[in-house]
Amino acid sequence: MAYWLLKSDPDTYSWDSLVKDQETSWDGVRNYLARNNLRLMKKGDRAFIYHSQEEKEIVGVAEITKEAYPDPTAESGDWCSVAIKALTECPRHLSLEEIRNTPILNVMQLVTNSRLSVQSVTEAQWRDILRYTKTVL
């Protein structure tokens, strides 16, 4: 199993939207590195949902339910989507500031390549974030 972080502007699509929808297509990604990360995702992989913009915090955990397929929102180009479903909200949200100030987490792509919307997360980082957010899966 691999671990990921998916960034979303909560004004566009929030954690609450995912919970309401239960499952959705994670589409609209228009960055080549992020697209390549989508292509690496496998069914059953897990992903943190991160609210960008104002909140800047990890808010929930999702599961990949369908591997990469052509992005239905793309008018041209070689873009893809994956399907995800909500698993659980993090009881304690973890802010970007806390991530920046925590060893092992401060080297995450979230800190070093902040504009990347689909990022890999190491197993050690995954475990630490679950612990810091008091999330039980």
The tally of helices reads: 5
Strand order, main sheet: write it out.
Answer: 2-5-4-3-1-6
Q: Give the uncertain stretches in residue-range form.
A: none
What portion of residues belong to β-strands? 35-45%
Shape: globular
**Over all CA atoms, what is the radius of gyration?**
14 Å
Mean pLDDT: 97
- What structural category arises from helix and sheet content? alpha+beta
Order of helices and strands: EHEHEEEHHEH
Task: State the separation between the terminal residues, measured CA to CA.
Answer: 14 Å
What kind of sheet is the major sheet?
A: 6 strands, mixed
Helicity level, as a percent range? 25-40%
Question: How many DSSP-defined strands?
Answer: 6
Account of the protein in words:
This protein is an alpha+beta fold and 137 residues long. The protein has helices at 15-21, 32-40, 96-100, 109-112, 123-132, and strands at 3-8, 23-26, 46-51, 57-70, 80-95, 118-121. The protein has a six-stranded mixed sheet with strand order 2-5-4-3-1-6. The chain is globular and about 40 Å long.
In brief:
The chain is α+β, with helices and mostly antiparallel strands.
